[in-house]
Amino acid sequence: MKKILIINANYYKKVTTKLLTSTVKILKKRGIRINLAVVPGVFEIPITIRKNIKKFDAFIAIGCVIKGDTPHFDLICKSSFYSISMLSIIYNKPIGNGIITALNKKQALQRCGIIKSKKKNKGLEAALAVLSVLKNGNKKI
Q: What is the pTM (predicted TM-score) of this model?
């Protein structure tokens, strides 16, 4: 049985609770063992993954960053996303990126499913991506 660690950066609790619910639901439906780590913000996700890299088959990062008036948004998003992708490549582990990057709170609420939208729940998307990578190993053709 595969083990996945969900890292929930719960700075925007209303948003991430909705992401987490959708993520856990699909993983349980697929029979995945789930653990949860809660961190204060998106910037703490990569170090939490690194500290647990040998204990799990895959990871799902959940969080939300909403653009403000300073460059903080760009710096946090770029450094966090880069670190997550490098961890995935270096350690050959799938890491689903369920981090919402929004220009405003309404966009964030749409991307998590609190406000109806044609956009999928970002946590669900990340979970499905990780499940796909875990399932689809190399195949002979």
A: 0.93
